[in-house]
Write a structure and sequence with these properties.
By secondary structure, this protein is α+β, with helices and mostly antiparallel strands. It has two domains: about 160 residues, no CATH class; about 130 residues, Histidine kinase-like ATPase, C-terminal domain (Heat Shock Protein 90, 2-Layer Sandwich), CATH 3.30.565.10. About 65% of the residues lie in helices and about 10% in strands. Strands 1-2-3-5-4 form a five-stranded mixed beta sheet, with helices on one face. A hairpin with a 3-residue loop joins strand 4 and strand 5.
């Protein structure tokens, strides 16, 4: 496992500092209650408080360090913990050593943390064997050893959870970035791509009729300019939707009004209350309608399209049906794939039936729920 030197930087100083303060309070209590074997000497007390203060300052300031220095910092802490144990009489300072594998988990990795925990446990057993004969029959010594081992397990587990949580946060951030990139790609294709297609068609028409029919060419240029304005309006509308709610029915009426003419007839029928749907779901339906109309006019050669929307308390259903030639065996492009992805993100579904004799029928459904 790779070291994680910068994981949870706010967690490290607080966990260690809380233990330092706990050791200080225990020492103060033992001294005040007269539980120490020897009276507290001022110089010894000053040294004890000074070392703990130095440790707290070390944890607060030492948030980012190269991995190659981690071993030196851990060794320094271990030496200072030993000094604290010598200067105080409660014996509670032994708990500070559980910080060694805890801190090592972040700076040296999981294996080093486990190894240090094992070394500390073995070292304590060796120390008991050398200093306390038959310690393994002493209930108090066994209880202290068990509590120390429990502290080691909890410290290493806390470090593992913190590392895992930090990595999950990073993964979520990366996934959110990818999702946002895909959303922007869909928006560009569904909105600006639609209008740029219309503008390109109108400009080609103007170029083709420039000599033969100047009036038709001029009208095509006027239509291209109008599509440019509509594209700008949609960009402003998209930005405004980020700050406010989205209304499906007015947006569909504006879309149909821009496309409906003598060559390409669009019939719109919207029924039901859209207040029970969140903006993301309604925008997904709008983009589906926009893509369906674009495909009908650009690829299917349709002259008539029916757009029907039904909203109820359970779901919203959009149907776009045209009288064109369908996909004619062509594979669906990025627009349909992006539409399907957008609908899936809001829990919706998409189906497209292609009949060369009867045109194309696009059906999009999104569930009710969410906040506007």
């Amino acid at each position: 496992m790779d070291p994680v030197p910068n994981t949870a930087p706010r967690l490290l100083p607080w966990v260690a500092s809380i233990l330092y303060v706990a050791v200080l309070l225990a020492a103060v209590y033992f001294a005040a209650a007269g539980l120490c074997d020897e009276p507290a000497e001022p110089l010894r007390v000053a040294g004890f408080v000074g070392v703990l203060g130095f440790l707290i300052g070390l944890e607060v300031l030492d948030r980012h360090r190269p991995v190659r220095l981690a071993i030196a910092f851990l060794a320094l802490r271990a030496a200072l913990y030993w000094v604290v144990g010598v200067l105080e009489c409660s014996g509670f300072s032994r708990i500070l050593f559980v910080l060694i594998p805890f801190l090592a988990y972040f700076s040296l990795g999981r294996r080093a943390s486990y190894a240090l925990a094992g070394l500390l446990t073995g070292g304590l057993v060796v120390n008991l064997s050398l200093t306390t004969p038959s310690w393994y029959t002493d209930r108090e010594q066994l209880s202290d050893l068990l509590m120390f081992c429990t502290g080691l397990v909890m410290a290493v587990s806390m470090a593992a959870v913190a590392v895992h949580a930090e990595r999950l946060v990073g993964q979520v951030a990366r996934l959110a970035t990818v999702a946002e990139r895909n959303r922007l790609a869909r928006d560009i294709h569904d909105s600006l791509g639609h209008h740029l297609t219309v503008i390109a068609v109108q400009l080609e028409k103007a170029a083709a009729f420039r000599e033969r029919d100047p009036a038709t060419a001029e009208q095509a240029l006027a239509d291209a300019r109008a599509s440019t304005r509509h594209a700008l309006d949609e960009v402003r509308q998209s930005v405004g939707t980020l700050r406010a709610g989205f209304a499906l029915a007015p947006a569909l009426r504006q879309l149909v009004a821009r496309l409906d003419d003598e060559r390409f007839s669009v019939e719109l029928d919207v029924t039901g209350d859209e207040s029970g749907f969140d903006s993301a779901a309604l925008i997904a339906l709008y983009r589906a309608a926009q893509e369906g109309l674009t495909n009908a006019s650009r690829h299917a050669g349709a002259s008539r399209v029916r757009v029907r929307v039904r909203l109820d308390e359970r779901a919203a259903n959009l149907v776009v049906a045209d009288d064109g030639r369908g996909f004619s065996g062509q594979r669906p492009g990025f627009g349909l794939r992006g539409m399907d992805e957008r609908l899936r993100l809001v829990g919706g579904t998409l189906s497209v039936s292609d009949d060369p004799d009867g045109g194309t029928r696009l059906v999009a459904t999104v569930p009710a729920g969410g906040r506007r």
